[in-house]
Amino acid sequence: MVARERSSQLTRERLIAAARASFSRHGYHAATTAQIAAAAGCSEPTLFKQFGSKQALFKATIQDTAESMLAILDEPVPPSADAFDVLVGRLRGLLSHPLLGQLSRLRSFALALPDEIDLGDTPGVDAFEARVAAAVAAGQASGTIRADIDPRDIGRLAFAVGLLFGFRSAVEGDAAAAAELAPLADTLATLVRVPEGTSHETLA
Question: Which fold has domain 53-203?
Answer without folding.
Answer: Tetracycline Repressor; domain 2 (1.10.357)
